[in-house]
Structures are given as C-alpha cells and as structure tokens.
Amino acid sequence: MKYETVIGLEVHAQMSTDTKIFCGCSTKFGSEPNTQTCPVCIGMPGVLPVLNRKALEFAVKTGLATNCKFSLYSRFARKNYFYPDLPKGYQISQYELPICEHGYLEIIVDGNTKKIGITRIHMEEDAGKNIHEGGGSFSFVDLNRAGVPLMEIVSEPDIRSPREAVEYMRKLRTILRYLAVCDGNMEQGSLRCDANISVRPAGQKEFGTRAEVKNINSFRFVEKALDYEIKRQIKVLDDGRKIIQETRLWDSSRGITESMRGKEEAHDYRYFPEPDLVPIIVDQKWIDGTKTSLPELPDIKRERFVSEYGLPESDADLLVSEKPLADWFEEGVKLGGEPKVIANWMKGDLLRLLNEDNKSIEECPLEPKQLVDMLKLIDKGTISGKIAKTVFEEMYKRTPKNITVKADLPGFEVTAELIVKEKGLVQISDTGEIEKIVDEVITKNPKEVERFKAGEEKIIGFFVGQVMKLTKGKANPQMANELLKQKLSA
Ligand SMILES: [Zn+2]
User: Fold this and answer.
1) Cα gap 244→265, rounded to integer Å
2) Which end of the chain is more exposed for a tag (fewer CB within 10 A), N or C?
C-alpha cells in the first residue's frame, strides 16, 4: 500500500534576551552550575514573577515575520508536572490565549513554493537541566537555564516529507536570526524541535495515529529521525498492527526512535491561569511600531537580489540564508564590484575557506573591500583569474582575525596588491617574454604540433596549459592562446 506522511513541528526557540523571562538573572550560556539563579527562578515561596518586556517584543516580532494574528489580550498559564529540573512543580507557559496565532511561512522544495501554516506562537520559561554523572545514587540539577525565555512555535500538520521538515526548520531559523530574537544554535540547544508524525494510506482524509518524537537537535537529525519513524510506522501498519499514540525519543547514537512514555493529553497537565502574573494587553500601535522596526526579511531580500542585481535564484537563495552573508555581498556591490562576480567568489572560494576553518561569515577575517580591490587587479590585467585564486586564499589566511576596529591598526591591511608584489605574481603580458616560452613549448612537443596541423584544434588547450605551467600560471592566457594559434598555424 502507498502511504502519505503527515508531519507537524513544535520548535522551541530560546530568545536571546540578556535576562530571564520573569527575573533579572543572566541567560549567558556555559557558566558554572547554579550561578545564575535567584529566589524567583528557583521557585521559592512568596516570590512574584514579572514579565521581561523584551521577551514579549521578541515574540511579537516573530509573529509579525510569520504573518500571524495577534491576541491583544493574552495571558500565562501554569502547566503542572513533576520533574526534578522544574523547581516550582509547574512551568509558566501560555495555553488558551497565546500571543500569536494563525500565521504561515513559505518554503521552497524542488523549485516549488509551499505554505506551511503556523498554529500558534507562545512564550514560556525553560526548565533546568539534570546532570547524571559521578556514578552515585544521585543526580545533579543545574538551574541556570530555569526561567530562560522560550518561544514555542507550533506548525500545522502541513509538512509531507522529512525534506520539507528540514526546509521549514531552516527557514524558521533564518527568520529568527534575521530578527535577532534567537541565535539558532542547535548544538547549544537554543533551537530544539519535537515532531508529530503519522502516516495514512494515500488518498485517506483522516490523519493516522501520531507519535511525537522528541530530542531532535540538529538539521541532520530532523531528516534522519523522521525517516526512521516513517519507516517504522509503515512497517507496523503493513504487519497489520496498530500505531500507539506515544512520545518517542530520538537516539542519535543508535539512529532510532524509542518509546519513552504514553502521550499526555492537555488535561494531564492541569492547566490553569497563572494568578501571579497580570494579563498581557498589547496596544495595536505598539505592534505597528514594532512592524516598522523589522529588518528586510529573507523572502523580500531574495526577490530584490534577483531583480536589482540580476542574480540567479539559486545564488540569491544562498546569499540571503544568513543576513551577514547578504550584507557582505551588498557591501561589495556598493564598493563597485560586479554582483555576479562577487556572488561567485563568495559561493566558491570564500565559503570554502570559511568551511575549512569551521568559521561562520561573522567570523570572516576578510572585508568585502579586499575582494573588490583584487577584482580590480583582474580587470586591469595585472593578475589572471587563476592567480587571483591564490591571492585570495593568501589574503584570507594572512588577514588578522578578531580585529574589530581595523582602522585603529594602521599597517594591518593585507591587500591583494601587497601579495601580488611580494610573491611576484604579476601577470606576464609582455609579448616578447611570452613568445619565448611559446617557442620553447612548440619545440619540445613535436607530436602535438603534428596533431594540431592534422586538424585537431582542441589540442591548443594542451599548449596553453604547458605555457601556464612553465610560467607558474603567470602568463596572460589570452595572449598565450593567440600567439600559439599564430605560430602553430604558420
Ligand atoms: Zn532568577
């Protein structure tokens, strides 16, 4: 039987506020356990939480960027459950009145645009972290993370394949990073994803019974975990058994999902309105004002890159995937670089070097100006495109890293011109000099000369290659090509 997959994602995004959602404790990652806590976030009796205004603003920005409708009146609720990392015995979350609802975002898969609905976005606090080490009959609890603001972004069950799920996650991450409301770091847990998955016979309208898979913490695992779970469910159905509604845990080391517990229903959490926090009443004017402060979002930027700079869609897609990448590109264009040429250098050499270095574009030592100046040397004929690759790499490797105020450090600047001079890479465009080498190459390769004369014109490439080899890539290739043609045809 043919099956169709139905997937909905619940993404938890840690908001990049400086302080926690209901107290003034720092949200910094990686500090000593329990050094960023206070009576509010460790749940002492008698304390009162106060909402962090920034967290509300971040949730509103995310709702605006994902086409959501706003609840001008919303409130928090207590979600009750017992777990050692939850000091109060309940989590402050939002339940029946979330801040945002009914939005969508668009993904592109195989060139087709698809809308994925967003059911709701709500704010909540994170729990602490249990640490099981030391081998004793006890565990540790670190409450630094307790009270860190989260957004839960719940999608509609509109996703039909693991690839669509990955694209949705990527798109969401890009938007969150554009808005600077979440750093999107999956390794550090700032972006986590739970997936609801079911399969149904193709053509059937009703959804199948779903399983929730938790603990998916990288893009690679989104695809792997979903692939595994889909195959598992299809096998269960093909064997004539029934899918059980349950929560399953993704085990990345073994590449499988495992049953963790029966799926809870909402009533298991005994939700009720949080009595210690006042309702949130949002002013429409404030939402409108926030809207005008949003940066240009990736979809609009991509369209503009295509229409304004004439870039192919695939280039535009790549460049807008990270805002700093798009900014780097546009700065280069402003400095007079040809858009497509800059895009090519970024796609090829720049991203390759950053990748080898395990660096993001934000940590890129090179400035767009260094590339643009090098491109001018190519245009002037000082260096060939081939030599430029060497120059670019050298420039990348030698430019000091982690210098923020470069203007304060005179003499630091590693320019293409400097490298060309130092390494003697200036292109040989002197006819006499190239002619000597061309003659040498012709004398040394009589067999190839015969083949050329017999009509095998393509072999000219071999001769050009020999000239480039002897000059270590410095000969002007067009000149070498023309001289060779003249001499061989003579
Ligand atoms: Zn605190």
Assistant:
1) 14
2) C
Domain presence at residue 67: yes
pLDDT at 403: 53
Determine the distance separating the centroid of ligand 1 and the alpha carbon of 42, expressed in angstroms. Answer: 7
Alpha-carbon distances, residue 190 vs 85, 103, 197, 282, 335 (angstroms) = 17, 22, 23, 26, 36
What domain range includes position 389?
365-427
How many whole angstroms from 147 Cα to the centroid of ligand 1? 7
Please give the pLDDT value at position 323. Answer: 92
**How many whole angstroms from 268 Cα to the centroid of ligand 1?**
28
Q: What is the pLDDT of residue 134?
A: 77
- Are 345 and 328 members of one domain? yes
Residue 482 tokens read as: 């023309």
| Cα 77 to ligand 1 centroid, rounded to whole Å | 19
Both 158 and 282 in one domain: the answer is yes
- Name the domain count of the chain: 4
The CA 44 to ligand 1 mean position distance, Å, reads 10
Could you tell me the pTM of the whole model? 0.83
CA–centroid distance, residue 21 to ligand 1 (Å):
9
> Residue 72, Cα to own-chain centre: how many angstroms?
32
In a domain, 403, yes or no: yes
Residue 85: its pLDDT value, please? 92
Co-location of 265 and 203 in the same domain: yes
Tokens matching residue 68: 């959501």
Query: What is the C-alpha to C-alpha distance for residues 59 and 152, in angstroms, rounded to an integer?
Result: 10
Residue 295 lies in a domain: no
Query: Cβ(212)–Cβ(229) under 8 Å?
Result: no
User: 344 φ, ψ to 5°?
Assistant: -65, -45
CA dihedral 461, 464, 469, 471 (to 10 degrees): -170
Q: Can you give the pLDDT at residue 405?
A: 47
What is the CA(27)–ligand 1 centre distance, in A? 9
CA of 220 to the centre of ligand 1 (A): 34
